[in-house]
Amino acid sequence: MKAFVTGGTGFIGSHLVESLIDSDQYDEVRCLVRNNEKWLSGLDFTKISGDLNDLKALEKGLDGADVLFHIAAIVKAPSKKEFTQANVDASENLIRLAQKKGVRNMVILSSLAAAGPSNGSPKKEADPMDPKSMYGESKKEMEARIHAAVSEKDSIKIIRPPAVYGPREDQIYSFFKACKFGICPIIGDGNNPRVSMVYVSDLIFGIMKAAEKKDTGVHTYFISGEGTHSWNEIRGVTNKVIGKRTLPIKIRPNLVKKAAVFIENAASLFGIYPVVNKEKANELILEWTCSNEKAEKELDYHPQVSLAEGISRTIHWYKMHNWL
User: For the domain with range 2-165+197-227+288-304, which CATH number is right: 3.40.50.300, 3.40.50.720, 3.30.720.120, 3.30.1780.10?
Assistant: First the structure.
């Protein structure tokens, strides 16, 4: 089979591309590359030069493809307009073009952020969607556009992961970087709010299992690690891996918002939009957990990497590449 991947140069996408290349099911892996090949450098893939606004590049990537893996997205931006253009309009255009090119099997990456916080019980696919950020809203709207665009011949799988961590990840990385210096920032009391996390290889396993599902229609799945976790648990595992007892710095939710406002305003003076911003603060103070029950039943998905093993692998990679 032939696969066409968007977002292949990024954290999740590059791991997916590696797995597709290693799989016996795929004889060609095409990747949309805007400029720098980044993590794809040296891999055996077919480069499609362009971006999601390049119609000819998309047609070239989709021509004769068996599966579309749409991973590309933006996760931070200062305005709703930018999120809509990148995550909603571009996704709909890509899907409609895939339909015209006869590509019926599609796997689209969404996010738990589209579904919203869990509020005491892990989120399930049928639960009402209640996003709390512009990013989450854009992913919710993307999903709505997918449902509106699907034809009777399409098999479209929407994947909603929670926080994804592992080698090459550069946002949760800031947590581990703080721990290296003996400080562990924790929002709340350390026991609440709880979070779901997924190690990147488990997410890729779930994405590839979704590609094997050929039932027509739109099928949505949460793909997460085993169970849910408190930040006290995450801190404990991290302490063991780095061999250092970190000092927990517990931050009240209202202070998270105030700090985010200060950071965003300061960053604007330099013309940048920071990872820690008002939008992110709105999400950080809430509980984000989800259930794998549907994916386990319909995709035979079962996470393989425990939290302890995942954090160990991640920190080892950071150290090997001089990130820590």
Answer: 3.40.50.720
- Where do the structural domains in the chain lie, given as residue ranges? 2-165+197-227+288-304
Number of residues assigned to the chain: 324
Q: Are 122 and 196 in contact (CB under 8 A)?
A: yes
Tens-digit pLDDT profile for residues 26-69: 999 999 999 999 999 999 999 999 999 999 999 999 999 999 99
> Please, where are the H alpha helices in 150-219?
173-180, 200-212
pLDDT attached to residue 249:
82
**Displacement of CA 52 from its chain's centroid (Å):** 18
In this prediction, what percent of the chain has a pLDDT beyond 90? 80
Residues 6+ apart with CB under 8 A from 320: none
DSSP code for 162: -
| pLDDT computed for residue 251 by the predictor | 74
Q: Which residues contact 249 (CB under 8 A, 6 or more apart)?
A: 183, 184, 185, 186
The predicted pLDDT at position 60 comes to: 98
Q: What would the two tokens of residue 184 be?
A: 């562990």
- The predicted model scores a pTM of 0.93
Spatial CA neighbour of 69 closest among 48, 34, 98? 98
The C-alpha atoms of residue 160 and residue 111 are separated, in whole angstroms, by: 4
